[in-house]
Structure formats: structure tokens, C-alpha cells
């Protein structure tokens, strides 16, 4: 019969502090652009346009 092999337990936590989310709601959306094309899109199609963080994905932006 095979013996159950359990993983070794650490004597101390591997990370000193819990991992914190770098993106809060204010870090993802940066600012609205003031270019002519962005203003035109806002006025014509009633679409909000914002500059967002490069590392943010679509789910975080929504």
C-alpha cells in the first residue's frame, strides 16, 4: 500500500504582510482626456471617455 505523503508545514509565514490590492477605485481611472476627438465622442454618442491605468484589465475598469 502507498503511504500518504503530506507537505511540510512552514515554521513561520512565508510573507510578512498579506498581499494588498494595488488597484483601488481611484487608481484605475486616472482622468478624462481634454482632446477635441474625446470631447466630440462625449457629445455625439454620449460616451464617457477616460484615461485608465495600463495594467488595469477590462473587468477592473467596469
UniProtKB/TrEMBL annotation:
GO cellular component, as recorded: ribosomal subunit
Protein name as annotated: Ribosomal protein l23a-like
Any Gene Ontology biological process: translation
Keywords on record: Ribonucleoprotein, Ribosomal protein
Gene3D superfamilies, per the entry: 3.30.70.330
Superkingdom in the source lineage: Eukaryota
Stretches the record annotates as Disordered: 1-20
Single annotated GO MF: structural constituent of ribosome
Keyword Ribosomal protein: yes
Coiled coil: none
Protein family per UniProt: Belongs to the universal ribosomal protein uL23 family.
Amino acid at each position: 500500500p502507498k503511504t500518504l505523503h503530506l507537505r511540510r508545514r512552514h515554521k513561520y509565514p512565508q510573507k510578512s504582510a498579506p498581499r494588498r490590492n494595488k488597484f483601488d477605485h481611484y487608481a484605475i481611472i486616472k482622468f478624462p482626456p481634454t482632446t477635441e476627438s474625446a470631447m466630440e465622442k462625449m457629445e455625439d454618442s454620449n460616451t464617457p471617455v477616460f484615461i485608465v491605468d495600463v495594467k488595469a484589465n477590462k473587468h477592473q475598469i467596469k
